[in-house]
Amino acid sequence: MQPLRTVFALCAVVGFLASARAQGHTDFSGSWVIDVDKTAVAAGRAPGTGRAGAAGAIAIAQDASTLTITYTNGTKSVYRLDGKEVTHKATTSASAQGLNPRMNLPNPGTDEIYKSHWQNSKLVTTMSGHGANGPTMATEVRWLEGGWMVVQTTREAQAGNTVQTSYWKKSKSSE
Q: For each of the chain's 175 residues, which pLDDT tens digit applies?
C-alpha cells in the first residue's frame, strides 16, 4: 500500500508543478503599436488628439528571465524578470520628448535603475534615477487587457505625481 501512496503523491506533485508552469507569467512578446485614440481618451482628451511620438511602435522579446523592448530608433530597455536590478542610461529629457517637464524624468546620460517583479499577471517595475530636481522615482505596471497591452506609469514629483496610461495593440505583422 505504501508504494501506491508514493506514486499518487508523486503524480499529485507533478500535476501541480505542470499546472503552475502552464499558467506561467504574461507573455508580452510581439510587435506593438500605440492606440493613439484609446490612449488620448485615457488621458482625458478627445479621440484624434493623441500623439504617437517616438514610442509609436515597439518590439518586445521575452524569455524566462528578461523582457527586452526595442524602440523604432533602435534603443532598447531590458527588464530582468527575477527581481534583479538593471541599469539604463537615460537618453532624453521630457522636453525633448515633448512631454510635460513636471514628469521629473532622469537627466539625459544619468543612470536609471529598473527593478521588476510579477504581481499576479502584471509586471511591476520601479525606476529610480536623478533628475534636474533631485531623485526621480517611477512605477510602471504592464498587463494585458482584452486585445491591448496596457502600460500605466506613475512618476513621483514634488509638484505632485503624474500618471500616464497607454494602450498598445499587436501589429498585424506579429499576429
A: 555 454 344 344 334 333 333 348 999 999 999 998 888 888 777 766 655 444 578 999 999 999 999 988 888 999 999 999 999 877 754 444 444 455 566 767 778 899 999 999 999 999 998 877 778 889 999 999 998 999 999 988 777 788 989 999 998 765 5
Burial class (CB in 10 A: 0-12, 13-18, 19+), 159: exposed
Predicted TM-score (pTM) of this structure: 0.74
CATH for 27-174 (2.40.128.20, 1.10.10.10, 1.10.10.60, 2.10.50.10): 2.40.128.20
Contact 81, 69 (CB under 8 A): no
Pairing label, strands 148-156, 162-170: antiparallel
Return d(Cα 81, Cα 4) in angstroms, integer. 39
Q: What are phi and psi for residue 68, nearest 5 degrees?
A: -120, 125
